[in-house]
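[Automated response] Your request has been received and processed.

Submitted sequence:
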Amino acid sequence: MPSPPDFVRTHTRLAPVPLVPELLLHQADEPIALWEHTEEGGTEQPPPFWAFAWAGGQALARHVLDRPELVDGRSVLDLACGSGLVAIAAARAGARPVTANDIDPLAVSAAAINAAANGVVVDPVGGDLLDTRDGPAQAQVILAGDVFYSREMSARFLPFLRRAAARGALVLVGDPGRAYLPADALTRCATYDVPVPEALESVTVRHTTVWQLR
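Generated structure:
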């Protein structure tokens, strides 16, 4: 398998993000074909979440760009960053420093490549931060798009986000109605109708909410 940066560039094309057209991402056209390519080395790989502009991330990015006062001059962590879209939006809105974290090395590479394509500075950090209490985990703003897609992941993300909110961080979540969203712990901030790839979502538009964790 090629190096992660080469793989990202080979299997994607640089294109505007539908809800955030002022930003560019390296995006793939065919999710199944791309996933097959990631596993050509013979080992199981995580789904290529980094190659698409997911609804929750698009909504968060739009919200941050429209309300830069939320992040301007503050440290930001884009958790489970995928493509790095939300981190890039935060950096464009004036956040400093901005960390884009993901467990997938391809996502870490994609975030770095996409940040460079948009002319912003983002620190891509690999590995699992959910059990940590220092470094990027201490950011003043935590942004999380589309993280409540399974019971297992919700059970891991929610305690981390609650600890961040308890110490005074602003925690914003972008979600298009995923099954395991803890809505009873959240306050609605804004809603967006987000264009999404039909091959991924079985629809062309997702009604998506930006929430704040109480």
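Summary generated for your ticket: The two ends are 43 Å apart (CA to CA). The helical segments are 4-10, 31-38, 55-66, 85-92, 105-117, 151-166, 198-201.
If you did not submit this request, please reply to this message.
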